[in-house]
Design goal:
alpha+beta; single chain; 307 residues; 31% helix
Length: 307
C-alpha cells in the first residue's frame, strides 16, 4: 500500500477582477505535479528477512489581506462541502519568504534560481520537532490589485480552484505583500497528518497487525520488544529508501519488513502477505519519524520483525 507525497502548483497574473474595471483578466496558468512515492522493502530470507485597501496606499506585508483570503477560501470550501483550512504559521512564513522573492524579481515563479523547492522551503521553516507533518502540498501564486480580486480570479481558474477546494488539504499558509501598487499573493497548502510518538506508532501498527491476522482467520501474534528497534528504524532514514537488509545483521532468524508512510498503520502489501503466514507466531515493531533528502518534511519509518 503505497501513498505518494504530492506537490501541485499553479500561478496566475491578475488584472481587473473585483478591484478595478480594467477589462477581462489576463491569466497565465501553469500546473505541475511531482510525486514522491513512499517505499517498502521485505526481507523474508531465512534466517534473516480583512483588507480591501486600494493598491498603492500601503506597502509591505498585509496580514489583514492574508486573513481575508483565508476566510474567502473557507467560505468557498464550505459551499463545496469540504473541510475548512487552518492557517499554519510555518506555512505562512514559507509563503511570505517566496512572495518577497517574487517581488524582488517582479515575476511569478514557483522556484527561482538558487531557491529550494516547495517541500524544502516548508521543511526549512517548519519546527525541527516535526509538529508540522505533511504528506501532500500545493501552491497558488497570484498578482492582483486587492485581496477580493485575487480570490475571485483564482476561483475562476481551474488549477487554482482545484488547490483551493482540494479536500485533502487541511492547513494553509497565505502571504499577501504589496509592491508598486500590486498585491503579490502566495497560497501554500498542505495536508497535516497526525503526530505520533514512537510508542503510539508501535501501538497503531500492532493494531493493524492484529486486524490482518483476524481477517485471515489466524491466531493473534505475541508482540515482542527487542532492544534498539526504534533506533534501527531511525537509521533507515539515512538511506534514500528503507532497506530491510540493513537490519538483517542485527535481528537474525526472522523476516523483516521496512517501509515509509505518513500513516504508520497503513501496512504495505509485503507485510500483509507475510502476516497471513500461519507459521508466524510473534512480531515486533520499531518506529521513527525522521527527515532526509527524499522526505524533507519528514515521514514515519517503520520496521516490522516477524518470528
Amino acid at each position: 500500500m503505497l501513498r505518494a507525497l504530492l506537490v501541485s502548483f499553479a500561478m496566475l497574473a491578475v488584472s481587473g477582477g473585483l478591484c478595478a474595471a480594467e477589462g477581462p483578466p489576463q491569466a497565465v496558468d501553469s500546473r505541475n505535479q511531482v510525486s514522491i512515492p513512499n517505499h517498502n522493502e521485505v526481507n523474508d530470507e531465512q534466517p534473516t528477512p480583512q483588507s480591501s485597501s486600494a493598491a498603492g496606499t500601503t506597502s509591505g506585508e498585509d496580514s489583514a489581506a492574508e486573513n481575508e483570503l483565508l476566510q474567502a477560501a473557507n467560505q468557498n470550501r464550505k459551499l463545496a462541502g469540504v473541510p475548512v483550512l487552518r492557517m499554519d504559521e510555518s506555512l505562512r512564513q514559507a509563503a511570505r519568504a517566496h512572495a518577497l522573492r517574487m517581488i524582488q524579481s517582479q515575476q511569478l515563479e514557483h522556484q527561482f534560481s538558487g531557491e529550494p523547492a516547495l517541500l524544502q522551503r516548508i521543511a526549512a521553516i517548519s519546527p525541527l520537532d516535526g509538529t508540522l507533518k505533511i504528506d501532500r502540498a500545493g501552491e497558488n501564486l497570484a498578482n492582483a490589485t486587492c485581496a477580493p480580486g485575487a480570490n475571485d480570479v483564482l476561483m475562476r481558474s481551474a488549477p487554482h480552484r482545484q488547490n483551493l477546494l482540494d479536500s485533502n488539504f487541511n492547513v494553509a499558509g497565505i502571504a499577501a505583500i504589496w509592491s508598486k501598487g500590486r498585491l503579490y499573493v502566495v497560497q501554500d497548502f498542505a495536508h497535516n497528518v497526525p503526530t505520533y510518538s514512537a510508542e503510539q506508532s508501535r501501538t497503531l501498527v500492532g493494531a493493524a497487525v492484529d486486524d490482518t491476522r483476524q481477517q485471515a482467520g489466524l491466531t493473534a501474534l505475541v508482540q515482542l520488544t527487542p532492544p534498539n528497534l526504534d533506533e534501527a528504524a531511525c537509521k533507515l532514514a539515512t538511506e534514500n529508501r528503507p532497506n530491510a537488509h540493513l537490519l538483517a545483521a542485527t535481528y537474525t532468524n526472522h523476516k523483516i519488513v521496512t517501509y515509509t508512510q505518513s500513516r504508520p498503520e497503513a501496512l504495505p502489501a509485503g507485510a500483509l502477505r507475510l502476516l497471513r503466514d500461519p507459521g508466524v507466531r510473534q512480531f515486533a515493531v520499531g518506529s521513527c519519524y525522521a527527515r532526509n533528502a527524499a522526505y524533507p518534511t519528514g515521514m514515519y519509518w517503520v520496521a516490522i520483525l516477524l518470528y
